[in-house]
Design goal:
This is NarX-like N-terminal domain-containing protein. By secondary structure, this protein is mainly α. The chain has one domain. The protein is built from eight helices and no strands. The protein has helices at residues 20-46, 50-74, 78-99, 105-133, 136-163, 170-189, 196-216, 223-251. The longest helix is centred in the middle third of the chain and has 29 residues, at 105-133. The protein is globular.
Length: 253
């Protein structure tokens, strides 16, 4: 039911980072994967494809380990290296929450909160790498990569609200993320460097956004169906946006 996308699942061999745009893409992946792991944890606790969600969570965790080491080793400045050292410390604590005890609402509440903290550090590192690259194309890799993060943050908060473990401002954050996602999608569509393939993929992303936005409205009478719908559509839009990021990365080389 849930997609295992190249660059998102944990099974692929990881090549060494060869350039700044590849680094920005991979750095950005640590933003969305932190939220995605929180969502997958929530799914296991809520009985949404429990076994599959657990396997995905373990797979993504392994990928996060490898990506973090790769980026820390690549870090081109002491400041960026320091940020990744901070992220590594935060990741150790987060991983313990994910796997160190039985799944529970109390633990889920902590995971929702700590995932935001982890993403804040990962976002700082991604911004530092984007500034270091200093290219317009690198900026597009960052912006399109952030769309992946927004999709996972919205779905995480939706499920957290449904399970009763969300912070008080969760719905407000979802609404802000919706507005930003649409704004950035328009911004990407207007980029003068877009190839026809990128335009087509962005068109597909806009279609998937319509499905995802509808799922986030939670109009189904059966709440479990609504939760499954959010989980599946968030994976699909993530898959499409991951493809867009890859296109911008190749375009920038």
């Amino acid at each position: 039911m849930f997609a295992a996308v190249l660059g998102m699942a944990g099974g692929e061999a990881l090549a060494q980072i060869g350039d700044s745009n590849s680094a920005i893409n991979k750095a950005g992946s640590l933003r969305f994967q932190a939220h995605r792991m929180a969502r997958l944890y929530l799914q296991t606790g809520m009985g949404i494809e429990t076994d599959r969600s657990r396997r995905q969570l373990e797979s993504v965790s392994g990928l996060y380990d490898r990506r973090l080491i790769e980026l820390k080793n690549y870090a081109p400045t002491p400041e960026i290296k320091e940020t990744y050292v901070s992220l590594e410390k935060a990741w150790i604590g987060y991983k313990d929450l994910l796997f160190g005890s039985k799944v529970s609402p109390e633990n889920a509440r902590k995971i929702v909160e700590v995932s935001d903290q982890l993403v804040a550090i990962a976002n700082k590192a991604t911004g530092q790498l984007t500034s270091y690259a200093g290219s317009a194309q690198g900026g597009l890799v960052n912006v399109s990569g952030r769309q992946r993060m927004l999709s996972q943050r919205m779905s995480k908060y939706f499920l957290a609200v449904a399970w009763g473990v969300a912070p008080a401002n969760a719905q407000g954050e979802i609404n802000k993320d919706k507005a930003e996602f649409v704004q950035k999608l328009d911004e990407l569509a207007a980029a003068p460097v877009n190839t026809q393939a990128i335009k087509d993929e962005l068109g597909l992303a806009r279609q998937q956004w319509a499905f995802f936005e509808n799922a986030l409205a939670g109009r189904e009478v059966d709440k479990k169906s609504s939760q499954i719908n959010v989980a599946t559509t968030s994976e699909r839009i993530l898959e499409v946006m991951d493809g867009v990021v890859g296109m911008y990365e190749k375009l920038a080389k």
